[in-house]
Amino acid sequence: MTIIAGGCRSSPAAPSFTEYRDERTGFMIRLPGGWSEAALPAGGPEVRFVPRGAEPQSPEFISVFTVPSEDAPSEQAIRRQVFSLLPIHGVSGFQQDPKTTSEVLWYRFELTGSSGSTEWALVGLTAAGRSRMQIAVCAKPLDAWREGQAQCDEVVRSFAPGDLSAQ
Predict the structure, then answer these.
(1) What is the dihedral of CA 104, 110, 112, 114, to 10 degrees?
(2) Is 143 helix (H, G, I), strand (E, B) or coil?
(3) Does residue 120 have a pLDDT over 70?
(4) Where exactly are the structural domains of the chain?
(5) CA distance linking residue 34 with residue 51, whole number of Å
(6) Model confidence band, residue 5 (pLDDT cutoffs 50, 70, 90)
(7) Which CATH entry fits the domain spanning 35-158: 3.40.50.300, 3.40.1000.10, 3.90.1150.10, 1.10.1740.10?
């Protein structure tokens, strides 16, 4: 039996995602299929994910940082912390997210920066509580940003912080 599929095109499959929950800090984020945790020093503030086979300092990455926050953090303190974590070149947006409550300040941002000689763009989301804040970012090389932004938006949208009142 012969099946002829002339003229038929298969639509691109929706990218698969895997849920990752960090046991140490409690955050949850969805990762694109084939991405894995990069080897970074244990106990540091960053958990980083890269595509299979990529170096830890790849310009294509997903990171979640868990850092102490001052009591009742302010927008200025949150900005300062975000800008201190990555090699930032520019900011194209930093605004309070509608998820903000009296207990947790949420901010969404878009930045550019670089890893080595490769520039990247990223979207990020931070959740800041009384004891700590968690900052999730998804970056793609600048020349792949147009195609990669939708994936990064999906990743960042999935981010759920751990307990922000824990020490």
Answers:
(1) 50
(2) helix
(3) yes
(4) 35-158
(5) 6
(6) very low
(7) 3.40.1000.10
